[in-house]
Every structure is written in structure tokens, then in C-alpha cells.
Design goal:
The protein has about 45 residues and is mainly alpha-helical. The chain has one domain (about 5-40). It is about 85% helix and about 0% strand. It contains 2 helices and no strands. The protein has helices at about 5-15, 20-40. Helix 1 (about 5-15) packs antiparallel against helix 2. It comes from Cohnella lupini. This is Cortex morphogenetic protein CmpA.
Length: about 45
Amino acid sequence: MPQWLCNQLMSAFQKKDRRQIRLLNDCWFYYRVKPEKSKENAGITP
């Protein structure tokens, strides 16, 4: 996890900002899953 994201999450948890926590969580899962999908598609040639 990037350091900037860790800092943002810690700040959101300290402020108890649920909207920000959900947004950052969604961003983390989106970017974490995105490279895995491109790896799977890299071996497939049309």
C-alpha cells in the first residue's frame, strides 16, 4: 500500500470520517485488482 494512502487512511480514521474511509478503501481495492486483471490478459493474444 502506498505511503500516501496509509497517511490518508490514518487521518480519516482519527477524524472518524466514514465517507473518506469508504472512498479510500474503494480506491485501494480498485487499484489492487486492476493490475491483476491486466496480467491475466497479457498472455492472451487476439
